[in-house]
Design brief:
The structure is a single chain. The chain is about 50% helix and about 5% strand. The strands form 2 sheets. Strands 1-2 form a two-stranded antiparallel ribbon. It has about 180 residues and is mostly helical. The radius of gyration is 18 Å and the shape is globular. It has one domain.
Length: about 180
């Protein structure tokens, strides 16, 4: 167990946020701004504000890691972001840089306002009307991970009313024609 100079017990997300401060400060600032904006309505256009969640940066960091690395345990994500090869234990700067690229790509999808609000629309279509109906923010955020994996990383076959099926076009964004892919679950 580690404790900082203010007496706060540190966890894995604190260590990863520190890595962000060192190697990708703009990403940490974007994450913090997104979370701050989710708490209050904007008077100046679109924002991450919603009536369901007021996420903390550490919570959305988990979403970025779950989406980008397909990992839920932050201790492995911390090792990856330090540049460690999990199989051999070797650490390299090149590997660290590549892992930060993965995180940056994932982060862009996580804080993309259209993705965020499309996901929240799915929550609403599932019958939730406010944050009072949500008993676990963590469950909702891990659902956001699954949503992003489905939306961004899994190619979908689109079926026309005629019954004809088209594979996704090469190089095209893999999208669904309905905003809620897990609505029927």
């Amino acid at each position: 167990m580690r404790i900082n100079s203010k007496g706060k017990t540190l966890n894995q997300s604190d260590f990863i946020l520190t890595l962000l401060s060192v190697f990708w400060e703009s990403g940490r600032k974007e994450l913090e701004a997104f979370c701050r904006d989710a708490r209050k309505p904007s008077k100046h256009g679109a924002s991450s504000f919603n009536h369901f969640l007021e996420p903390e940066p550490s919570q959305l960091l988990r979403v970025s890691i779950g989406h980008g690395f397909r990992r839920a345990r932050l201790k492995y994500a911390y090792a990856l972001l330090r540049g460690k090869d999990l199989a051999t234990g070797e650490v390299s700067i090149d590997r660290r840089d590549k892992q930060f690229e993965v995180l940056q790509n994932s982060h862009a999808h996580v804080i993309h306002l259209q993705n965020w609000h499309d996901f929240l629309l799915c929550i609403q279509k599932c019958g939730f009307r406010s944050g009072k109906m949500i008993t676990s923010d963590t469950s909702v955020l891990y659902s956001y991970v699954l949503y992003l994996i489905g939306k961004v990383q899994i190619p979908l076959m689109l079926t026309h009313h005629s019954g004809h099926t088209d594979p996704p076009k090469e190089g095209s964004e893999k999208r669904m024609d309905k905003p809620c892919f897990f609505h029927g679950i």
